[in-house]
Design a protein that fits this description.
This is Cobalamin synthesis CobW domain protein. It comes from Pseudonocardia dioxanivorans (strain ATCC 55486 / DSM 44775 / JCM 13855 / CB1190). The protein is an alpha/beta fold. The protein has two domains: 215 residues, Rossmann fold; 187 residues, CobW-like, C-terminal domain (Hypothetical Protein Yjia, Chain: A,domain 2). The chain contains 17 helices and 14 strands. It has an eight-stranded mixed β-sheet, with helices on both faces. Strand 10 and strand 11 form a beta hairpin. It starts with 14 loop residues before the first strand and ends with a strand. The N terminus and C terminus are likely disordered.
Length: 450
């Protein structure tokens, strides 16, 4: 079996780590309590309810103690505060606890936190380590309320409108948060109930959005807490590992048929998008859509891989590296073997490895209309023939991310080099796309459309 480039060799960690997420505070708290019943478990939680007053409280509890400590908000930045306090705290618990549960505030996305656990360095190089160097990250448990989750995942309500903790410049919708938490889960714990038809539709969405995640009812987990150990998961389970930007867009084996009106749509093409026409077409990636995600390239910036994500009424488009086409030998040397192989297999004499690849999970959308609109947004034959100099002059309404795309959701700007260092950066480039959203690592591209 090939070694995972994201994980160093060495002695196996003795402390297990589980990330617990969800929009349902009562549900996640019940799971935390069930996990605390297992001897040797410690739950770490950062309470963000008083963030508006500049206060964050860290709570650490085990079977016999429960301690809350106010944590200084580092220069007003939540990401810095969590990174500087959460990551060292987990490392300190190594060897003392058999299992550490990082219980996230409802406003946080687990992919961001897992990226930080795996790639942000602690200490000084060359002895610096990441959290996952010293603990065994088992994966992510996400708790959902089946009575409300589908409406949350398809609505337009923002995080601020819901009354959750409002991070600086955070324009995410509840749908973006709900889908991100489920999409990254290794185990989905279901609480609440819903009418049979609504429940069937929710089940159809979950099967396609997170096909490798196991599912269990909260009542069943209460009867058998061992299911929360993540000892039995699908072979393709994420185990807390963010995908690379060039990884397959469909993880596992999601159903490809339609169920309760829920189905998957895939769009692929080699031509570049006309930026303005793509911008005009993005509403079709929002209406009747649960989730869209994929790689795109714009005629105005042929070197850049752009990552597109939408959920409910919110959409993001941000930079995600560079295509290997026209890149030097160094870019090929730094590419993972998987990426280099895929680029070579799909190489086009005109476009190299550049391509449009988007998957869309829909519940009430016309796939033919969506396909026609996206094809119409591609460059025409005449526009292609005009060449890259002419493409560079095309109107580009997506250009604003160059000014704002590297800022944290809570307003503090970081360069990835400063966060991860050379070793962490190498591991990240070897395996993981730096995720968008709100969490510990922090960069959140602005929304291109709402």
């Amino acid at each position: 079996m090939p070694l995972d480039p994201r994980r160093p060799t060495g002695p196996e960690p003795t402390t297990e780590l589980v990330v617990l997420a969800g929009l349902t505070p009562d549900g996640t708290e019940q799971i935390a309590q069930l996990m605390l019943a297992e001897p040797g478990t410690v739950v770490v939680h950062h309470d963000l309810r008083h963030l508006g007053d500049g206060r964050v409280f860290r709570r650490i509890r085990d079977a016999t103690s429960d301690t809350a400590t106010e944590v200084e908000l580092a220069h007003g930045c939540l990401s810095c505060t969590l990174r500087d306090d959460l990551l060292p705290r987990v490392v300190e618990l190594t060897g003392q606890a058999r299992r550490v549960v990082v219980h996230l505030d409802p406003v946080l996305e687990p992919e961001q936190v897992c990226f930080a656990l795996a790639h942000l360095l602690l200490g000084d190089e060359p002895a610096a380590t990441t959290v996952t160097d010293v603990v065994d990250l088992l994966g992510v448990i996400t708790v959902i309320d089946v009575a409300t989750w589908f409406d949350d995942a398809t609505g337009e309500e923002t995080v601020a409108e819901r009354g959750l903790v409002e991070l600086f410049d955070d324009e995410r919708t509840i749908a973006q948060l709900a889908t991100a938490q489920v999409e990254f889960a290794d185990l989905i714990v279901r609480c609440g109930t819903a009418p049979a038809r609504e429940l069937a539709r929710t089940n159809a969405v979950l099967a396609r959005l997170s096909p490798t995640a196991g599912q269990v009812r909260l009542a069943d987990a209460a009867l058998d807490p061992a299911v929360l150990s993540l000892a039995v998961v699908a072979p393709e389970a994420r185990r807390g590992r963010p995908d690379g930007v060039h990884a397959p867009l469909l993880r596992g084996a999601p159903p490809l048929d339609s169920d309760c009106g829920v189905s998957l749509f895939a769009f692929s093409d080699r031509r570049p998008f006309h930026p303005q026409r793509l911008h005009d077409a993005v509403d079709l990636l929002l209406d009747g859509v649960v989730r869209s995600r994929g790689r795109v390239w714009l005629a105005t910036r042929p070197a850049e891989v752009l990552w597109l994500e939408s959920a409910g009424g919110g959409l993001r488009l941000g930079r995600a590296g560079h295509w290997l086409a026209d890149a030097g030998e160094e870019a090929w040397e730094h590419a993972t073997p998987e990426r280099a192989a895929m680029a070579s297999l799909g190489w086009d004499e005109h476009y190299g490895d550049r391509s449009q690849d988007i998957t869309v999970l829909t519940y009430a959308a016309d796939h033919a209309e969506m396909s026609a609109a996206l094809h119409a947004a591609l460059l025409t034959d005449d526009e292609l023939a005009a060449g890259e100099r002419a493409w560079a002059q095309l109107p580009d309404p997506f250009g604003s991310w160059q000014e704002h795309g590297t800022g944290d959701a809570d307003g503090c700007r970081h360069e990835r080099d400063d966060q991860a260092g050379a070793a962490g950066r190498a591991r990240a480039e070897a395996g993981a796309r730096e995720p968008t959203g709100a969490g510990v690592a922090g960069p959140a591209p602005p929304e291109a459309a709402r």
